[in-house]
Amino acid sequence: GDPGKAVEYADRALRVRPDAVSLRMLKVQALEQGSRLDEAEALIRQLMARYPDNPVFRGTLMRFLVAHQRQDAAEAELREITARNPADSKAKLELVRFIGATKGVDQARAELEALIERDPADNELTFALIGLLQARGDRAAAEALIRSLLARSGEGRDALRAKGLLAGYALADGDRAGARALVDEILAKDGRDHQAVLLKASMELDEGRLDGAISSLRLVLRDSPDSPRALMLTARAHESQGAPVLAEDYYARAYEAGRADVSYGGAYAEFLMRRGQSARAEKLLAGMLAAHPGSIPVLRLLAQARNNQGNWTGARLAIDEIRRLGG
User: Fold this and answer.
1) What angle do CA 215, 220, 223 make, to 5 degrees?
2) Which of 100, 110, 129, 294 is paired with 25 by a 20 to 30 Å CA distance?
């Protein structure tokens, strides 16, 4: 419709219902559609001032600024929020995520390290840096940071979380005894610690103790029904029990719950290929590649799915793209 008429309608309605937030948001949209950007921004800021505890309007302003190529202004807003709330870890991490999305991982890491230097006691920032280092494959730096955090965290919640990360490394290294000892330490303090219960279930799966694994996983899923890792491990357990229909249901749910992480979709695609359904796997992987362009793990599985169907040209295209990306 006509943005100008929409603004007039919103103004008339607001004279009758001046406190109607939905009408103000309608007016913002109409002003934006009519390229009256200064007025739209001013109205968003009025809503932020009027409802300072409602994060929705802050998010609206961020989206508005980014949509109109004003990333610097959006970053300045986030910096102002963190300056006003120096103890708010979530605000700091929101700033780091924004910088990562707009300037890249190296800038995000530099920002995170600067924030930690200013507030070394904020363990949430340290855990975020650990996650970033892990995502980049820098295990040595991540593990050093975990051990440093553990040394200063006593026996609290953060110490259990750090021990869980170390247990995961031990398990990945094949040190099952070391992993089990750390998991037992955590569960002795908190029998419902999800990180430890998931590691316990993973070990039970590897040892063929499927009923024990499923029992452990139910504990996690009762508290967090959308935990992608718990869903994926449950899928593995049902597949090992010879229940493919149940297994597929859990693989699909894990994929839906963990779309940001290609490993869950990858596990689902591998399951489909094991079931002789490479065409379905290819369709799934093509969708994942659209969401995660340049993902080498996805491209490898896509090449495999095409190869399974005798599509040598398609498989070669995926392999060539992997080589082009340096994989």
Assistant:
1) 130
2) 100
